Amino acid sequence: MKFFINKPEDVVNESIEGLLTDPKLTKLDTFPEVRVVTRKEIDKSKVAIISGGGSGHEPMHAGFVAKGMLTAAVCGDIFASPSVDAVLAAILAVSGDNGCLLVIKNYTGDRLNFGLAAEQARAMGHKVETVIVGDDIALGTDTQQRGLAGTLLVHKVAGQLAEEGKSLDEVTKAAKKVAESTISIGLSLTEGQKFNNPEESRLDDSEAELGLGIHGEPGVDVIKMDKADALVKKALDELKEYLSGEDEKYVLLFNNLGSVTPLEMNLLVHSFDKTDLASKVKYLVGPTAMTTSLNMNGFSITLLKLDEEIEKALFQTTETPEWRIREYAKPSSIKSPELPKTMQFEPSENEHNKKVVQEISEHLIEMEKEMNDLDEKVGDGDAGSTFAGAGKKFKSISDELPYASLPELFTTIGRVLARETGGSSGVLLSMLFTKAGSSLEDDDNVGKALLNGLDKMKSYGGAEKGDRTMIDAMQPAFEALSEGKAMDEAAKAARKGADETANITNTKSGRSSYLSESSLEGIPDPGAEMVARVFEKLVNIL
Fold first, then answer.
1. pTM of the model
2. Mode of pairing for the β-strands spanning 207-210 and 36-39
3. Residue 439 is inside which H or E element, if any?
4. What Cα–Cα distance (Å) separates residue 221 from each residue in 25, 111, 218, 254, 294?
5. How far is CA 227 from CA 234, 264, 268, 271, 299, in A?
6. 3-state helix, strand, coil in the chain (%, to 5)
7. Which residues contact 120 (CB under 8 A, 6 or more apart)?
């Protein structure tokens, strides 16, 4: 594993220092021996809300130190509870006459260290209450339930009521209500890897883990890897047993456990939306990383039963950018404007032209894997798929094309490429064929028309011959055709141009300009190679 760190032993301290570039946050000056992050401005006439625990769950806990949420966070080592002295220091630093509430995740170390610090503070005359959060239902109700992302909902409600000036008893009562009404379940494809001595994975590619905590401990069940819809359903099947009442409404917290991409997180929300539980959800928190387990590739789902007090508190403004809540709604759409028709000409027949389009389309599809493999060496590995997609589209609309008129055919090819082919290459080729189509209305020299289209393409794309692009094969081939040379001569020119791209390692335009010379040396440009192969195929067809 590779990480953006300096030394493993300094990760937590340096991460906190990075967080403290926020001007509204500060730390106790006993840092780093005692890691306590607090608000810079604290109103000690109000109840203080303190939480914390092991690090590795960022942005929890210190990321939620803000007006309307936590007053202070106590940060331990990775997955290790902070010391009693650290918790006591936080209590003494931020508590006033109205006391403080400690929000404690249900892990043995946290219960013991926060609990003993609370006892010592009480002995010193401070008002201290505690709430234990055990929202993880994976182990059932007969065992100690672990604290997961549901802890954040306790932070938010307690923090808001404290901000409103509620008493310690009122804040504590509300916090306990939230803790008792919150359920969570986690599911992951990998473990989170520690910065020191990363361990071998206990899962293979066909497995996932359900019902796991946030400290790297194994899940309750190893399940079969499956599609997103099926995995979300498995997680929800566990939660359903703990829901109460048909008419209850919930807030859903969709939490990224570390390394799930934002794209996948939104997809997982869509998977949730397909289930019958979606009708019970009124608000959504996330989907984003809020309570992580280092870089675990997994998610957790939390549901909290709403009442008027909880609902109001959740929606009040807090100064942390990490808190994201919105109403949960079914996806909707509005009427799309009518775009110009892709097929602007009536279908017409010309067996020769139809054969060329069909066989070139098939050839693009056949080359997909080989061209993707080549593109993987110097690009993003999808050149073959881009052109194969165009080939599949032209096969599907084969009977709709105006084969009898080259100007109409070229123009239609350009329109189809613009609408149906992804990436910059599709747009550039669309420009080429569209311009070539209009040029053929004035001059039936196909080579000259293609050169006119190429000039238009170059004016927008910025690349020229010699920049390691498809132009290196196109331009000499088009020039040969414009001079009246046979197709085999044009194919030879395209092949020579494509082969020469393997020796071009220094360009100022095109995607190769982003790459190092060593990564380009000896490898032909995939676009140029594809053009050369298309011309060689044309020789066989004709």
1. 0.82
2. unpaired
3. helix 423-440
4. 40, 26, 8, 21, 21
5. 11, 12, 10, 10, 14
6. 45, 15, 40
7. 84, 88
Q: What is the pLDDT of residue 519?
A: 63
Parts of the chain with a pLDDT under 50: none
Polymer length of the chain: 542
Residue 144 has which token pair? Answer: 């100690």
Per-residue pLDDT of 455-496, as tens digits, reads: 999 999 889 999 999 999 999 999 999 999 999 999 999 999
pLDDT digits 0-9 by tens, 79-91 = 999 999 999 999 9
What is the dihedral sign for C-alpha 441, 444, 450, 452? negative
Q: How many CA atoms lie within 13 A of 454 on its CB side?
A: 21
Bridge pairing between strands 298-305 and 250-256: antiparallel
Q: Is 215 a catalytic residue?
A: yes
Tokens of 368: 């997909």
From 57, 61, 155, 215, the catalytic residue = 215
Beta-carbon contacts of residue 359 (< 8 Å; ≥ 6 apart): 537, 541
pLDDT at 518: 63
Retrieve residue 452's tokens.
Answer: 């006119």
Q: What residues does 75 pair with on adjacent strands?
A: 53
Letter for the amino acid at 37? V
Residues 365 and 32: their CA atoms lie apart, in Å, by 60
Residue 444, exposed/middle/buried by CB under 10 A (0-12, 13-18, 19+)?
exposed
DSSP 8-state class, residue 516: -
